[in-house]
């Protein structure tokens, strides 16, 4: 593939800034077509982002002869279907996170990639951001010594009370797999896997405490990794604004690393020498570094930056919070 000509299925909010514009900023990559079920919205996106073609039918985009790679950015419940159709058409796929609604679906997608002998990458794009590559480098240099435990806390206030007819797809388990935990935690759980490997054990619980919608609003996970590294995480979307928090701490025998996942966050490195603050900023098009790596992978110039098999590890941890 000399040049990756992308087609997007689901050009919604994520594609406005986070991902869509990045496809035209990467070498040997171009966005040539977009699809959305609402034809007027697809046309509008194409006009504003200077995309030559738009569709309201995914099959038409997938079978467009000028499109040779597919980016699936729809709700997770449709990922498996579109990945299968794209692979069957002989086109590699970059698929949004969570990669699908549960681990059983992901296992089927792995089988499909093998069946059609084609490439699939998952949009766990934080792996490619400077904040997290710096964290990995510091751990490899043993800056804080042997890791004791990791703590993640995401606390947010509910934005409004939703009715069954108003709730966004992220709050509909049939579309998202769960609630807001299923939307946010894949980023964090994937980074844990990327840093520490597959968990040795993992368990969790989910609750709908506030009853504002038909999905859990509090989830906890307890896990362990190799070398006796312990992990505790909590995701709560029903607290007061004054309790809002987005923090990750990796604590070692010599100090700790502290940072945030979802806001522009400096990295704080705490050792017996004091606290060093490393300035960090997310790129405007936050997926650009990952899309660059995926483009190279599809062109045969580099490894897969995140495989379906790796995404399966995260989904298994998520599944255990609902069992």
From TrEMBL:
Keyword Oxidoreductase: yes
Gfo/Idh/MocA-like oxidoreductase N-terminal domain span: 4-124
Gene3D superfamilies hit by this protein: Dihydrodipicolinate Reductase, domain 2, NAD(P)-binding Rossmann-like Domain
Keywords, comma-separated and alphabetical: Oxidoreductase
InterPro entries: Gfo/Idh/MocA-like_OxRdtase_N, Gfo/Idh/MocA_oxidrdct_glycsds, GFO_IDH_MocA-like_dom, NAD(P)-bd_dom_sf
Domain GFO/IDH/MocA-like oxidoreductase stretches: 132-258
PANTHER family according to UniProt: BCDNA.GH03377 (PTHR43818:SF11)
Name this polypeptide is given: Gfo/Idh/MocA family oxidoreductase
